[in-house]
Design goal:
Length: 413
């Protein structure tokens, strides 16, 4: 049975591999081949996969493939834990040092340095124990954690880190043929020369969950969810923003359950949303927008920074999303200011400055004028005559104040 991993090691990926190995056992497959290309992933998901591989009643072969692929961080330890480790030419393996909060290397003093050392020492002990169990180079296993060593395929074969370098699947099967594998209390003899490969790709549900668990996707879903909920509350009855926002927010929370979220980052993103909303309602002269942009960028950088994960929200996602939000807020503020400065277009206030026609006028300076399709009581100069054009200067209740004569003519009836 062939299982493919071409993404970060997350809980959905771990579930896919565990269920695939179980299916191989139930259907009496001779072995499981995991084709691996990963930048790393979560510690918990990695350990789940390794426990399943080492305890499975079937040989598990990990093949770093295709050319140009890598087994980095968690992927390196998964490869070490396999019964047979293979790599394609042009691939590399290693760089398993835990990533500290903020992306540093654990320098400095105090509690942060102590925690980093504890996490690193735990990872070193785990890597060495796996290498010892599989008869591989323990020194190299320690170096990939402490020194972030990464090794190309041919060198890894020479160091005894992997067992085979194979050009492709057919070459791998040929080199596996006849190999004896001692696993637990059993000895397996692989007969792979004419083996039939059964591809077991991820199902739709597994692909969907794996996509959501990507830090970049989770980040975007959270922002869409927050924006949709805000628009629904600001314009009740719109329905669509609330529906889309609610769905995206729930999916983001599912992803957060799978990922080790740093809630300081989450709080900074919420603070950025509050600042953006406040900018529309409070005259801060752009300070709230600048603060919101800074808060959003910092929140995205911190959101998934954790010793358990080698991936985080990429700058290729952070920068465009931040620019879009900033541009949206700037446009909104511009439109609000423009609306406040423009003349009223409805209501009695819109009558000021309009031209009206005198319908009836009395010697005491009162009468009726025709304006906006309606007859209004008006007061103004006593010298006015019917059909004169006047300009509305003020509105008092249901009475208009009009000025001296305006220019005659025009298209007013």
């Amino acid at each position: 049975m062939v299982l493919d991993v071409k993404d970060a090691i997350t809980p959905p990926v771990a579930q896919y591999l565990v269920s695939g190995i179980d299916e191989a056992i139930e259907t009496n497959r001779a072995a499981v081949i995991i084709r691996l290309d990963t930048p790393g992933g979560l510690d918990d998901a990695m350990r789940t996969i390794i426990q399943k591989m080492m305890g499975a009643r079937v040989p598990v072969i990990v093949y770093v493939y295709p050319k140009g692929a890598r087994a980095a961080s968690a992927g390196a330890l998964i490869t070490l834990a396999s019964d047979v480790a293979a790599m394609a030419p042009g691939t590399n393996i290693g760089a398993a040092h835990p990533v500290s909060v903020g992306g540093g290397d654990g320098g400095g003093d105090g509690e942060g340095k102590t925690m980093t050392e504890k996490v690193t020492n735990d990872a070193v002990a785990y890597a060495r124990s796996i290498a010892r169990e599989r008869g591989r180079d323990e020194g190299w296993a320690e170096d990939i954690v402490r020194k972030s060593v990464s090794t190309p395929a041919r060198e890894a074969l020479e160091k005894g880190v992997v067992d085979i370098v194979a050009e492709d699947m057919q070459d791998l099967l040929a080199k596996l043929d006849g190999r004896k594998i001692k696993k637990n209390s059993s000895v397996f003899t692989l007969k792979t020369k004419d083996a039939v490969l059964v591809e077991r790709p991820m199902g739709f549900r597994e692909r969907f969950l794996a996509a959501i668990a990507n830090p970049n996707v989770a980040y975007i879903l959270m922002l869409i969810g927050l924006a949709g909920i805000y628009f629904e509350f600001s314009s009740p009855g719109a329905v669509l923003p609330g529906v889309v926002g609610g769905i995206c927010l729930i999916l983001a929370f599912f992803a957060f359950q799978s990922l080790p979220v740093n809630y300081a980052g989450f709080g900074l993103i919420l603070l950025a949303a509050v600042m953006f909303i406040a900018e529309i309602k409070v005259p801060s002269y752009g300070l709230l927008t600048v603060g919101g942009i800074v808060s959003m960028v910092l929140g995205a950088l911190l959101l998934f920074r954790d010793p358990q994960i080698s991936a985080q929200v990429s700058f290729g996602v952070i920068l465009p999303v931040t620019v879009v939000f900033a541009a949206f807020i700037a446009l909104t503020v511009f439109l609000v200011v423009k609306a406040h400065r423009s003349a009223p277009r409805s209501g009695v206030e819109s009558l000021v400055g309009e031209t009206a026609r005198v319908a009836v006028w009395n010697a005491d300076g009162t009468g009726k004028v025709f304006c906006h399709g309606e007859y209004w009581d008006a007061v103004g100069p006593a010298s006015l005559r019917p059909d004169d054009r006047v300009v509305v200067t003020r509105v008092r209740g249901l009475n208009l104040e009009v000025s001296e004569r305006a220019t005659t003519g025009g298209d007013m009836p």
